[in-house]
# Entry
Amino acid sequence: MAEISTTTENVITFENVKFSYPASDGAYAVNGVDLAVRRGEFLSVIGHNGSGKSTLARLVNGLLEADSGKITVLGLDVAEGKNVLEIRKHVGIVFQNPDNQTVASIVEDDVAFGPENIGVERGEIGRRIDWALKAVGMEEFRHSTPTRLSGGQKQRIAVAGVLAVKPEIIILDESTAMLDPKGRREVIEVVQKLNREEGMTVILITHFMEEALLADRTIVMNRGEIVLSGAPEEIFENGEKLLTYNLCLPRITEIIKTLNGADMGINDVLRPEELAAQITGKFNEKGICEAQSSPARTAEISSAHEWDIDVKNLTFTYSRKSPFATKALKGITLHIDDGEFFGIIGHTGSGKSTLVQHLNALIKLPQAEKKRRKVKAKRGRPAPVLPEIRVGAFDLADRKTNFKELRANVGMVFQYPEYQLFAESVFADVAFGLKNFRKNLTDEQVALAVKESLEIVGLDYAEVKDKSPFDLSGGQKRRVAIAGVIVTRPNVLILDEPAAGLDPLGKKEIMELLHRLHREWCRTVVIVSHDMDEIAENCTKAAVISRGEVVMCDSPAALFARGEELVALGLDVPLVCKISDELRRSGIVIDSDCTAENFAEKVIEVYREAGNA
Amino acid sequence: MLNDVTFGQYYPVKSFAHRTDPRTKLLALIAFIVALFLTKNFYGLALCLIVLAAAVIASRVPLGRVLRSVKAIIILLIFTAVLNLFFHGGEHLLVHWWIIKIYREGVIFTVFFIIRLFLMVMASALLTLTTTPVELTDGIESLLTPLKWIRFPVHELALIMSIALRFIPTLIDETNRIVAAQKARGADFESGNIFKRIKAIVPILIPLLISAFRRAEELGDAMDARCYSGSKNRTKFKKLKFGWRDIICALVFAALITGVVLFNVYAARIFPEIYEYIRLS
# Structure
């Protein structure tokens, strides 16, 4: 039996490692990587999709085998087959999709899976379950079913399952990509604690620049190579370079860049409080203690009110009449104006997806059902109020409404829409919806419509139309899926988490695409999101949904001015608001519309005016 | 929504029956069915009915829920009952109309047959109402353990069952989502003839299959990463334990079978006139 080394300084070493996937025609997914991970280190790895960072994780514990070069883990060579199991005992990996990592239907059974595999005796397994669940803060869910938990909770169970094997190194392979901000925070906090308190070596592979900042060291990957390595602060000072590696700057770095464009001389920092302190300092140097920017402009929507969406008293219960009945919506009243770029905010399970599925009658109102469930008034209580929904001229409470025509006019893009592609060619997939809705189109008309919609989502019609949708890259697939919805030229386009799971650049591109669609293709765009910065930067108006109720509905600037209430609901506020709040405390009021650009402009404006005065 | 199918019929309360070891319940069900088929007269059947009634009371599941399980086989029941009624021969002719002849023996046999089937279905339902699928899997695995001696892959089978159970709700969610997404693109699953409907399923089936394969691959990686290497050197955290409830169960069902056998032998001596009237040929 190979012996693991408990004393080495470097727990993982890569020496000129190369790896290529069999289907990639010899293109290296990992190309000549040298890396040493120190014991107890917290290392973050960033890079765009396909940069080789996940491959790196799989090479470490022998899920993939390197073509050339040498990888050692705790002094053991990964290439030697007999070492693999021993290495896996010491290196735990938490993967991306929380649903695809649990084997059992009960939490404790799942956590026990790892220790059972390596033959730990029963009493000890029990102790390890106690310990691992406590470490991730999930003790009370020991006897629950993973499928009934939230994404963040599921992922913490996955972490516990890995911990129960008692590894020394834990790798998170984009484990936060599919979670909402709350879930992400939960997982990251657990990992930070393990690193600090248990001295565990952590490798965090992530798309979120804000998470990468928490590490001791960050490496940046591009095309299978490590292109940058150093403390997070150093990495993000190299702003321009990051852009060439298809990565984005953290928003705070962008703000600082703009401010320095106006010679404010701000040092690079990564936390909102630090930036606020610096700005205050600069103002004080100029002798300004109190200042007020011009009021934020409010986006005016000029609309014909032809396609207004009106929801009244909407309630909905899942699994009615079963012991598992859950009330998803508790009386939603909401109005969305024609022409709006509307945001619906809320974390997983708040009912936002249920709400939007009502808007194109995927979930029909009870009055519109074929077999109507009569809601009888209970004695002594007033008759229940029936929900109402109108979308443009369509009355969704009316059974005689042409629901097919409604759906052609209200396009709906679900979360991860690329998972719904099915046809043999991109053309057929995009044409599917069109042919369903418009039966009497000629082939030329169909081809033209498909061409136009593929082009507006930014794909080359001639190049992709005959390809199988499954051969495209992740971002392209999503574009095809969106094209398949907009091909009917809907007046209202609803998207559930359109940017979920994409890398930062992909997110940016999708949001740009949505703005293009809003300008040129549809009248109203509604996005469901839990990313506050996304809402702040893109939407003209937004509603916050929490536990099936509309808590607020206003312009982003007005919403985020009530930041404390949002935080109380377990939601986040955009970065800009955090900085503005800090500044307000020191007497500087920057009234921006919560976008990074506008905020920076306003700060510069105040700064200059004060200089002139 | 199909969300709660996996929990099958499980009725979440705490009761004697819920806390009984799943192995005991499985064996008890087998014993009950054996008793049902052993019995040759209504006395034995009545004994079975009493035991089942006691089990229903001990399970604290509303009687309506247990009875509802019979709904699934009601058509089959009526069909076979009618066949039996018409084609069972006998001595005492009751009805003779056109080509239909119904004998007293036929009526008695049909009643006997229906009660037997009713009891069997209700007993099986009671098992699933009081036992979670997970407990059932554990129970089956444990009962199959002796088969390891003939190299039957008990552990693998149990793992497959457990993973299948675990993924049913996930895949149902996924199906719901795909159905909704294709409906939003105008797909119609509710009208048209059978061929059209089968064709309409393609846009659901393909994404579902692809997703299932993707999940299987990811799960495989996750299991590998958690040191899975087959059943060798593997320990098991959960061990089922028999308790006092199981002893009571064992006694009751042993008594049931003994009772049924005794009735078979001595039934003719108990109320001979009644016995003679309802005797099965």
Notes: Chain A touches chain B through 70 residues (CB under 8 Å). DSSP finds 23 helices and 22 strands in chain A. Residues 181-197 of chain A form the longest helix (17 residues). Residues 276 and 583 of chain A are 6 Å apart (CA to CA).
